[in-house]
Specification:
two-stranded parallel ribbon; 299 residues; eight-stranded mixed sheet; 38% helix; Rossmann fold; alpha/beta
């Protein structure tokens, strides 16, 4: 893709900040949407709660990437926080999609975040983008999240959904919490460890988003997960090997349910998700294996 103007929401988050660094390093002009008053020329005001976007800041953008949303694992799932998880995704996406659709010259592509949570608990069953949504809170949120892009799609903007898995990174997400535990020798499987974790290296997550931006003709859902999901038991064993720490301390399922409440079902649930469409589009993973992904995060 030639050097372009690209707008990004969630630019201060784990994935967003890595994407902004990657785009800027290649000479793209990155516009960051912020909830406060802009402090520099590369910031644009938006308020997803009030569904407001300063659309003038999107003029001239070749792509808009929407990665904003309250952290699923940041707090216990009270009714209030579950509403926050939903609204931060659905309302913000709808506002952005409407702003994109209203432009005289809309962007070439609208990449909107989603998650493999859309499939629910799949057990040992492998699923891909053709699998219908599962049941429960997270699947329902993801369905609404993707549906909120409708104004952009109806305006003829190529729209892509990035159904992201568990991102292997030192700075945040699930692994941001796992690394300190394993370094302290306190890591171990979660529950019985048989649940599948569909992971993706942060490097590959960013590369995949850029691939979806750059490749004309790609639209709809894409699973951003490594090609070979592993069980929690296999992943925690790999963590122990890479960090040279024994994985001796399993976390009982009942303890998680007591501490995390409803969110424990997401941690204990199994999602064996395959990136079928991403591979078919020609994308090549730099870190397809878990040990390589862990080492890449540490480096």
């Amino acid at each position: 893709m030639q050097r372009s103007r690209i707008a990004v929401t969630g630019a201060s988050g784990l994935i967003g900040s890595a994407l902004v660094r990657s785009l800027a390093a290649d000479g793209h002009e990155v516009v960051r949407l912020v909830r406060r008053a802009p402090r520099s020329a590369d910031e644009v005001r938006w308020d997803p709660d009030r569904q407001y976007v300063d659309a003038a800041g999107l003029v001239g953008c070749a792509a808009v990437v929407n990665l904003a949303g309250a952290g699923v694992g940041d707090r216990r799932w009270t009714d209030e926080y579950k509403r926050r998880i939903r609204d931060s995704r659905v309302l913000g996406t709808a506002a952005l999609a409407e702003a994109v659709a209203a432009l005289d010259e809309p962007p070439r592509v609208f990449v909107s975040g989603s998650a493999i949570g859309i499939y629910g608990d799949t057990g040992d069953r492998a699923v891909d983008e053709n699998t219908p949504p599962g049941d429960g809170f997270l699947p329902s949120v993801c369905v609404e999240w993707e549906e909120a892009t409708a104004p952009a799609q109806e305006a003829g903007v190529r729209t892509v959904f990035t159904r992201t898995g568990l991102v292997v990174a030192r700075e945040g997400g699930a692994w941001g919490r796992l690394f300190p535990l394993f370094r302290a020798g306190l890591g171990g499987r979660i529950g019985d460890g048989r649940q599948y974790w569909s992971f993706v290296a942060l490097h590959d997550e960013v590369a995949a988003i850029r691939h979806l931006i750059d490749t004309d003709g790609l639209s709809g859902p894409f699973n951003l997960t490594a090609p070979h999901p592993l069980t929690n038991r296999e992943i925690t064993a790999a963590m122990g090997r890479v960090l040279h720490r024994p994985a001796l301390f399993p976390v009982p399922a009942q303890v998680l349910r007591t501490v995390l409440g409803e969110m424990a079902s997401d941690v204990l649930g199994s999602q064996r998700v395959l990136p079928k469409r991403l591979l078919e589009s020609g994308f090549v993973f730099a870190f397809p294996g878990i040990e390589d992904a862990i080492r890449a995060a540490l480096e």
